[in-house]
Amino acid sequence: MNETTALTAPSIIQKSERVAQLHRYWQATNYLGAAQLYLRDNVLLERPLQATDIKPRLLGHWGTQPGLNLIYAHLNRLIQDTDANVLLVVGPGHGAPAILANLFLEGTLGEYDPVFEPGREGLSNLIRQFSWPYGLASHLTPGTPGQIQEGGELGYCLSHAFGAALDNPDLLVACVIGDGEAETGPLAAAWHSNKYLNPATSGAVLPILHVNGYKLSGPTIFGRMSNDELTNLFTGYGYQVRIVGGSDPMQVHAEMWQAMNWAHRKIEAIQQNARAGMLTEVPDWPMLILQTPKGWTCPLTVDGQPIENTFHAHQLPVADPAGKPSQLKTLEGWLRSYHPQDLFDESGLPFEDVIRVCPADTRRIGMNLHANGGQCLVPLELPAFADYAVPVPSPGAVSVEGTHTLAVYLRDVFQLNEVARNFRVVCPDETTSNRMTPLFEATGRAWLGPMVETDEFLAPDGRVMEILSEHTCQGWLEGYLLTGRHGLFGCYEAFIPIVDSMLNQYAKWLKVSKETPWRKPIASLNYLLTSHVWRQDHNGYTHQVPSFINSVVAKKSSVARVYLPPDANCLLSVTDHCLRSRDYINLIVASKASQAQWLSIEAAREHCSRGISTWAWAGNAMNHPPDVILAAAGDVPTNEVVAAAAILNEHLPNLRVRVVNVVDLLTIMSPEDHPHGLTESAFVELFTAEKPVIFAFHGYPALIHELLHHRTAPLRFHVRGYMEEGRTTTPFDMLVLNNMSRYQLILAALERLDDQPGVTALTYWCHGRLSEHAAYIRANGQDMPAVLDWR
Ligand SMILES: Cc1ncc(C[n+]2csc(CCOP(=O)(O)OP(=O)(O)O)c2C)c(N)n1
Ligand SMILES: [Mg+2]
Fold it and tell me: Is the CB of 66 under 6 A from ligand 1?
């Protein structure tokens, strides 16, 4: 659409009149934003401002607000003129009062919560409830209509925006990035998302870098770069850059109006070209850089100190209006500078022309369907996982690479959902290494950049998203899930803690979403961690980090789930379950190495649905009470426990050993602590009330003690796991180094048994084996045959 048609679209009002209206709207949002920070009464300044009108606790941020309001106003105008379907992602989520002010004026806030309906009462509620205990939060939250991120922790808006745009061809995701935020590593990496977004099949992202010059108490790097430097940098990233800047509102409005039209036209041209089959390279998507003063329109100085356009404007330009009469006057002058009486009538409603820039109905930003992703969720069509089963004639009879088996199943998930286009895998370039190459029989690796003959599996429309940035992988997937689609994050176990902090924020989002009545359930965030701590044959100590389990377990029990499938059939069952689940963070840890298989697919289904069960075939207690219990959680620990039980049975046939396997880790927690926790009676049925339990765990042993805290007689649980002992060595030596080899598990059991014939001999035998192992690997460079050939 060109400028002329844009002008005639909604009405015949002259552009200058519309700019004036847009400005009045901006003034109204600025007024409401500032008022939210300070006022508990006299919200429209109908009488002189008094100290008692000021909130007792002043919280919140002003500095980012005028820029956010300006962007929102101009997006509204663009939507009116083009009918664009705009999802707004706001990096500086600390500017919540600005976004709330816009949602209030467009009416959506009141539609979600009648307490904020337009009118005097709603307006008072908005202003009073901001930052009030149990009122509106000082950051964006899942309770904010139209939003898919809180922005509390900075750095993720751009990857979220790209994740939201994927496979949403009609969506325009406008993304406001703070200039401080743009200094973060995750944000810096996310610029490259343009190499993955196919304009033929996906929507567009319009990045708007909000250069107000300052972060919290210092200048920003971007704020002190010249326009040439900025243009060169972002041109190098592949964007067409347009800079809008100034401190004269009317000039900025005029430039921003044009810039928005320019960006929209560029986006349309890129999409039309690609959709006509003419995509040949990474499109040069438009981006805007908005340079306006931090805290724009607040007092220039307060008590002689410069405020506007300095870092002092970040939070509260006027720090103590209730305590200092001079500051009360300054605040009143500032608030009155917006002329609230000219913006709102006596009933507290905005004058009609003030909100004429707001789009109608579902085009309002607060009403964007995709922001409440559960509303657009189409369940995945999943193949019957049993069709992919590994035949297991008897426990341990065959060995396979579990992730390869799973990849064949996931390949068909891609195929079955090819038309719905609602499933993606993200991964920091490890899909092949993780033995998941079968995925590429169904789809490619997304890639719009240049390709050479020796590349493998690259495709402009690939659904496996590989970038060596765990942050970007996580951000894309979050954006994709939050807008109602499905996915899986495949990652080396050692490097997933890079996104630990993103996990924290996402878990908080999910918890609060579940408590927000209008948020519909979305597909769970599924992690598949392979290449795990116990099988780092060629990477060694740096790649041995099982700490992500601790991170997930620490999250609210309503969202955290941890699965340690002991073999490929269990991995299939668990993954099928996770892909069907909603609103959880599912952590699956499974080795990519070839491993013994234990359960038939029927037995795997049964075991996984219980989450924990006795493996009668692996022990010898049958229906009798056991003398000792060997428990395992994790594929490698399972192998050791099964081996230890077999050796015990061979050497001490009268000793009753029970083997318990844990696939759903949190079943061992008490039901008061986690919804998956077994009842105490079921727990005692498995572990007895007093017998010793030797527990081999995939991760750090202290975690199991923590999880068992409320269980019957927890001190009889003796946990072995990773103790930060590692190096480049054999797989079995890793177990020995960490005291979790079969021989050490047996020794741990024997220590806790009453003396009985054979115990001393077996103790000597185990020590002998350990000495033999130490000598053997040093001499031969691999594990001894007794271990390698054991079935
Ligand atoms: C990752 C992260 N580090 C630090 C902070 C603390 N913090 C909150 S706001 C802010 C400054 C943000 O500056 P900018 O992105 O430029 O936003 P604006 O100027 O628009 O307020 C900082 C450092 C944070 N929220 N997230
Ligand atoms: Mg800034």
Answer: no
How far is ligand 1, taken at its centre, from the CA of residue 180, in Å? 6
Distance of CA 477 to the CA centre of its chain: 7
Which tokens in the block code for residue 411?
A: 């390949």
Instruction: Report whether pLDDT(737) > 60.
Output: yes
* Residue range 256-290, pLDDT digits in tens: 999 999 999 999 999 999 999 999 899 999 999 99
Whole-number Å distance between alpha carbons of 673 and 666: 9
Q: Whose CA is nearest to atom 18 of ligand 1?
A: 64
Distance 217 CA to ligand 2 centre (A): 10
Could you read off the pLDDT of 384-394 as tens digits, one per residue?
999 999 999 99
Nearest-CA residue for ligand 1 atom 23 is 216
Q: Find out whether 72 and 102 touch, Cβ atoms under 8 Å.
A: yes
pTM, entire model: 0.96
Q: Is the shortest distance between the CB of 620 and ligand 1 below 6 Å?
A: no
Residue pair 244/232 in contact (Cβ under 8 Å)? The answer is no
Q: Please enumerate, as own/partner, the contacts of 294-298 that have beta carbons within 8 Å and a separation of 24 or more.
A: 294/63, 294/64, 294/212, 294/213, 294/214, 295/62, 295/63, 295/66, 295/212, 296/66, 296/67, 296/212, 296/247, 297/30, 297/66, 297/249, 297/337, 297/338, 298/34, 298/62, 298/334
CB 564 within 8 A of CB 662: yes
For ligand 1, pick from 61, 187, 216, 503 the residue to mutate: most ligand atoms within 8 Å of CB. Answer: 216
